Amino acid sequence: MPPFNQPLGGNDMPRFGGPATMMRLPSQPTADGLNVAFVGVPMDHGTSNRPGTRLGPRAIRDESRMLRPYNMATGAAPFDHLQVADVGDVPINTFDLKKTIPIIEAFHAGVLNAGAIPLTLGGDHTLTWPILRAMKARHGPVALIHVDAHADINDTMFGEKVAHGCPFRRAWEEGCLINDKVFQIGLRGTGYGPDDFDWGRARGWTVVQAEDCWHRSLKPLMESVRAAIGDSPCYLSYDIDSLDPAFAPGTGTVEPGGLTIWQGLEIVRGCAGLNLVGGDLVEVSPPYDPSGNTALIGANLLYEMLCALPGVPQRARG
To answer: Which of 105, 140, 194, 258 is most buried, judged by most C-beta within 10 A?
Structure first.
């Protein structure tokens, strides 16, 4: 009997059966006794274009039923080294976005105070701001790897300061980030002016636009990211719209010319060795994902985050 929770195997229960949890793991109401907690945040009232991300956590969990415990690419076997479970969804206020912010913060503070690392299934990108608040309270300011088509540094959207286009402006204002250890990767598309991307650069952030990623491996980029971040606590926020819509159409604000799936995998796998203290996968919108492939990719990227966490041995990099 293994000492850690294991995903329910496909030879023990058909993949289309079993519990509706992340990777068909055991569920529990709190993070007590866990090293890692999968957390759902079913919200979309921070979106500015197409809705539907409130259904994202459920769809990601459903598609995660195909995942197996051993990472054939990296040699990581996270369930041999970490106690992992699904702690369910944050009970957000579905009618009031501003009241939802402290609810998300408090829930993640509970996970962190239990000594667990939260891996969060979104939900729209507004949710990262309250999580970073909880991170600051636990770890102090953190390094940030933000993978996205959009910078999400707007001061306001329609006069509101709480929205999915504003989380990193709010986090910066509250001192949640280590400015010279913030990396935004995959930004692209049209904008209102150069400040859309240059605002972060002016604060010492490294902004890598999608065009600088085309036709190349991102392993060298991640080597430089790891060197710059060092052993600082680091948070990974992955917006599924960082991927080109050819790969991940099921999201609210699609932009052409994005990252490939294999580049996304290189980014997340390239976080192994960092002091990752949490991560999220956001903006999966099932109504625009009829095949389920966007949610499937999201589930796989969350699994790769799990494999990259401290305490999980990796095969030596080639």
So the answer is: 258
Cis omega (within 30 of 0) on the bond before 292? no
Domains of the chain: 22-307 (3.40.800.10)
Contact criterion met (CB below 8 Å) for 125 and 144: no
Structure tokens at 17: 């059966």
pLDDT tens-digit readout, 186-209: 999 999 999 999 999 999 999 999
136, two tokens: 């600051």
User: Has residue 318 got a pLDDT over 70?
Assistant: no
Tokens standing for residue 266: 């290189």
How many Å from the N-terminal Cα to the C-terminal Cα in the chain?
34
Model confidence at 2, pLDDT cuts 50, 70, 90, reads low
pLDDT at 52 over 70: yes
Q: Is the pLDDT of residue 1 over 50?
A: no
The kind and range of the H/E element at 238 are strand 233-239
**Is residue 8 scored above 90 in pLDDT?**
yes
Residue 12: count other Cβ atoms within 10 Å of its Cβ: 11
State the pLDDT at residue 316. Answer: 77
121 CB-near residues (< 8 Å, 6+ apart): 22, 38, 39, 40, 41, 56, 57, 60, 61, 280, 281, 298, 302
Please say if the pLDDT value at position 105 is more than 50.
Answer: yes
3-state class (DSSP) for residue 292: coil
Local structure of 14: helix, strand or coil: coil
Query: Which 3 state secondary structure label does DSSP give 262?
Result: helix
Q: By the 8 A CB rule, do 209 and 188 touch?
A: yes
Q: What is the DSSP letter of 217?
A: -
